[in-house]
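User: For a benchmark we're assembling, each entry needs the component sequences followed by a predicted structure for the full assembly. Here are entry 17's components. Please fill in the structure.
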Amino acid sequence: MPLTNQQIIERLTEKFGQDIFDIHEPYGLLTFTITKDLNLKVLRFLYDEPDLGFTFLTDLCAVHYPDNVGKELAVVYHLHNLVENIRIRFKVFAGTEQPDVFTATGIFESANWQERETYDFYGVNFVGHPNLKRILNVDEMDYFPLRKEFPLEDQTRTDKDDEMFGRGNLIGLN
Amino acid sequence: MSLPEYHVKLPDGSIEKQTTTLNLGPTHPATHGVFQNILELDGERIVSAEQTVGYIHRAFEKIAERRPLYQITPLTDRLNYCSSPINNMGWHTTCEKLMGIKMPKRVDYLRVIIMELARISDHLICNSVVGVDTGAFTGFLYVMQYRELIYEIYEEICGSRLTTNIGRIGGFERNFNDIAFRKIEKFLEEYPKVLKEFENLFSRNRIFMERTQGIGGIDGQRALNYGFTGPNLRAAGIDYDVRVHKPYSSYEDFDFTIPVGKTGDCYDRFLVRNQEMYQSLKIIEQAYRKVQEFKGTDADVFHADAPEYYLPAKEDVYTKMEALIYHFKIVMGETNIPAGEVYHSVEGGNGELGFYLITDGGRSPYRLHFRRPCFIYYQAYSELTKGSMLSDAIITMSSLNLIAGEMDG
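Assistant: Structure for entry 17:
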C-alpha cells in the first residue's frame, strides 16, 4: 500500500507528539513545523525507519520573517522518498539573536554546501557543520544579504517604494 | 580509499611540503575564472581537491523578491544557459501551479517539444566536450551544427537563441510558425543519423573507453547522499527522473524509457546522456505528431485562458477596455499573486531543477529559492577525484556537466 501523508503524520506524532505542529498540505505536499532542537532526531527518524525511508534531501533553504519576533528565521527541509515517490517539507524556526540549528551533514553529504549557502545568506548557524563559511558571497561580507532588512534597490530612490509591490512599508526602507 | 605514501621524497629536515598545489584550469570554458579548483598533487596523483564557487553569483533570489513574476523568467534563463527553455518552462509551470491555471494539451505538447530540444542541446554539448577533453575534437564540431539548428528553432519561436525567455506564464507568446515546424521536422529527420555517427565515434573507441571507464565513479547510495539527480544519478544506477516521478506538462502522455548506467563513472554518464538524447527524440516525435492532430481552431491554441496573467493580444488592447486594463496591470506588475507556498520541479539538463516559491499576496514573491542541481552535486567533486590522476580530474569535471550559471544562482 502506498505511503500517504496521513500515515507519515501518524508515525511522526506517535513518536514526537506535541513537537510536531502546524500541519497542513499546500498543493498536496505535507508540511509541518517541529521544535528547533528536534530537527536532527526527526531527520534521522525519517531516514532510518524502513516504512518512511526519506533518504533523499531535495532541498534545504531558509526564509526570513522579520515580524515573527523571536522566531525570525525558518529553515526549510524538503525530503523525498524515492521508492514511494512522496515528498514532505518541514520547518524549524530560530531567532536571529541566536540562530543555532543542528547540522544535517551527518546524515546527508548534500547538506554541506546547502547549509553553507543558507548560512551565507541568512546567518543560520549550523551547529556541528564541518566547514561553515561563506560560499557564494565574499568572505569579507559582514551581513546576511537575503534577510529582509537589506533592501535590494538603491535606498535614495523614491519612485520605487514597496507600495508598488502591494505590501506597504517594508522594514528598513523608511 | 587509502593513499600510498607520497612519491616525492624530500631530504631530511626539509621544510618543503611533499605535495604540489595546483590551480586547475583553464580547461573547461568556465574555469577561466568563474570557478576554481585547487588541487593538492603528489606527482600526478590527486591527494585532495578544494572547489571554490560563487564568482558569478548574481543574487537572483534577492532580485526576484522585487520583481513581478513575468520578469523573473529572464533570471531563470541564466541558470543553466545550455538549456534555458527548460528553466523558463519550469518557472512558468511553477507559477501556473501556484495560481491553479490549467494548460490546454496543445500548449503542453509544444512545451514538451521545446524542453526536449533543450535537453538534447544540453547533453550534446556535455558529451561532445567530454570528447574534446579526451582529445577528440571532431565530434564536437560535427554536432555543433545541430545545436545551431535547435537554436534556430528557438529563434523562430521566441526570437532569441541562448537566453531564450521563451513562452509566458499561461502559454506561449505566439503560435509556432510553419518554419519552426519545418525545422523541427528537419531536425527529427537528420539528427538521429548524426547522433548515431557521434556515438560510433566514441562509445566503442578504445582510447575513449580507457580514458573514461572507472574514472570519477560513484555508487548509487553515495550519489543519493550527495544529492545527485539527473543523468549523473542515473549513470549510478538509480532511475529517478522527475518527468516520470512527478509528471508536469503532460509528460505522462508520452512513451519513453529512462536509461540507467551501473558504475556512475564518466563512461556511464556519457552513455546515459547519449541514450537520453534518443529518448528525447522519441518524445519530440510523439509530441510533434500529437500537435499535428489538432485541427481547425484547436490548432490555434497556444495559451491558456488566464487574462489576469497572460498578456492580451495587441489588437484587443487597442479596442477592448478589459484587455487594456489587463495589459496595463500586467506590464506594470500590479497583479496581486495569491498567497501560497509551492515547490515544483522539472527535469533540467543536469537534474532536478526545483523552484520553492512563497508568496504573501503581494505582487512579487516573498521568497524564491532555486534548487540548482549543479550546485548540489559539485560538492562530490573532491571525493570523485581523490586518488585519481590529474588528467582524469579534467574529464570528471566535464562529464559532470558543471554549468557555472546554475551553480552560483
